[in-house]
Amino acid sequence: MTENVKTARPPVDEYTKLNVPRKIGYACGDFACNMSWSLVSSYLVFFLTDIALIPAATVGLLIFISKFWDAVNDPIIGSLADRTNSRWGRYRPWVIFSFAPMLLFNVLTFTTNTAWSQTARTIWGLGMYFILVLVYTMVNVTYSAMPAMMTRDTETRSSLSSYRMTGAFLAMTVLSFLTLRIVNAFGGGAHGYQSAAIFFSCLAAPFFIITIVSTKEVVTVDDSKVKKVNFIKQFAVLKGNWPVIQIAIAYLAWGVIQGGMTLRLYFCTYNAGDSILYANTQTAWSVAGMIGAFSVTFFVKKAKNKGTIGGIAFTLVAVASAVCFFLPIKTAGGVGAYYVMNIIVGYGSGMMLGNVFGMMPDTAEYTYEKTGVYAAGFLSTFINFMLKVGQAFAISGASVLLDKVGYVANATQTPKVLFTMNFGAHMFVAILAAIAAIAMFSYKLDKKTYNEIVARLRDKGMAN
Known about the structure:
Layout: H1 2-7, H2 20-51, H3 56-82, H4 92-109, H5 118-145, H6 147-150, H7 154-185, H8 189-214, H9 242-271, H10 275-302, H11 306-325, H12 332-359, H13 362-371, H14 376-404, H15 415-441, H16 447-459
Helix pairs in contact: 2-5, 2-7, 2-8, 2-9, 3-5, 3-14, 4-5, 4-8, 5-14, 7-8, 7-10, 7-12, 9-10, 9-14, 9-15, 10-12, 11-12, 11-15, 13-16
């Protein structure tokens, strides 16, 4: 009698439609994550080359290596998270115990001393970044997997993703507007960038706490019915898994696109001759991204296939980026048009990210039925791994390419260098976005197919 009372659990609605406060609470986590992610994505290469005075080729090579270090730890973290069972849930405890170290190394990554030797600055800068990569993975990959355990309702998952990316773009907006202003307010240089990193890391902490307090994992997976595989054999779930592969292609393209966007700061600084243009257009980009991400909440109710939304979003990014390449950026008209195109790119980016992150959890049930392996964390890490591979090639490639065409920090650039900055920041982005659009338009895991999969899993007793 006592044992029955002890083990009895109240019924839980695994298909719950979470209320707005819960969605906002979850979204706070991506706002907090982007206090590091967006800072690194937008400013780290520039900080290392122009502030820490590390040669561009060295920066490119070491960031490239760091991304493959990231590729090693990503699936390991995801696999470990899939095997986690705790009173806090499967993925949530990783966020609980990892966010504080991540914020510490966010500051240390943007810390340098020009009095140190070049070797010391290089070892310190890239060493801190290597550790940041690891702890960021521990936070963000598991955070990304949480919606699969918060509900099985596919529209609610997409809504969570929409809210999440709204939070992310809000963070990007804050960063875009404030970073260079904080840097300049604290005297510029190394101290300015360190001060900015401290500010954003302190800002992130309470938002992580809000996410931890307001989220709960309610989806249960009967481990006795889950096929047990070791870490290496877990990769077999990817064979013929086209929904995962197509999302991974989109993430790979987005990673390369983000790498290309790294060149926008150089483009605005040297081609346009105004680094604040980057801060202003990036702010406009982020505000539009917020709107685009939030709009997914409404679009997903109308669309039969989430892939269609992703395809449209990538198309907007492709077209507007291509237009940016041809603009006369030193004229008033060119600058005005550049703002407009960046707003369109921002809207498309937000719409795409808000949608694609909502597609990812649905692949957990698809994979579970197909292989018998429940691997939401592993799939999340694999897809995020493709994002980081794209970034590795693009960011490191940008640094190496700049070095090869004759880039010299804080100097007047040659026409060849200026062309490279423009092409990488805009036309290259357009080409990759077009490829990603094709992958999204061909996505086959629509709502009807997903609901049929869940129904079959319930019939087999593999889902509640």
